[in-house]
Specification:
The protein has 138 residues and is of the alpha+beta class. It has two domains: 75 residues, Alpha-Beta Plaits (2-Layer Sandwich); 58 residues, no CATH class. A four-stranded antiparallel sheet has the order 2-3-5-6. The chain has a two-stranded antiparallel sheet with strand order 1-4. A two-stranded antiparallel sheet has the order 7-8. It is elongated and about 55 Å long. The chain starts with a strand and ends with a strand.
């Protein structure tokens, strides 16, 4: 039997693990201003996708004699600066922003405080058609 353990101090609620868990051992739900991730405690599947995709390395799969208890972690959701809808855990945004800025060469991360829907609208509005037909992102 394999234990599915999560370090709640490292986990920031990004949901990468629940997105790849085909067995449903890790589930996610958003309710009002909170995100809940539930870890079943046991995983007998022959994979380690959740452990591999976890950005902070908060998940461990390891052999156990007794099944660890299920764990549920809750995160406060950040509200979109444009529409006010909750969209992502504050802890995830804080942890990931420096990585995104580094990937952009140290520059700004446009739309970082916007939900995906508002981000698409704002970023789409910055694309203008140049006189020679090329697309330019302003």
């Amino acid at each position: 039997m394999r234990g599915l353990r999560v370090n709640s101090d490292l986990c920031f609620g990004c949901r990468a693990c629940s997105s790849v868990c085909l067995a449903g051992r890790i589930t996610m739900r958003d309710e009002e201003d909170r995100r809940f991730l539930r870890f079943s405690g046991v995983c007998d599947e022959d994979c380690s996708r959740c452990q591999e995709v976890c950005p902070p390395g908060a998940i461990r799969l390891e052999g156990v004699v007794e099944a660890p208890p299920a764990v549920e972690i809750s995160f406060a959701l950040q509200r979109c600066a444009a529409c006010g809808q909750p969209f992502a855990p504050e802890k995830a945004l804080t942890a990931l922003l420096p990585r995104v800025q580094e990937a952009l060469g140290g520059g700004e991360a446009p739309g970082w405080n916007l939900c995906p829907s508002c981000r698409r609208k704002v970023l789409a509005g910055t694309v203008v058609q140049a006189a020679d037909g090329r697309l330019i992102v302003a």
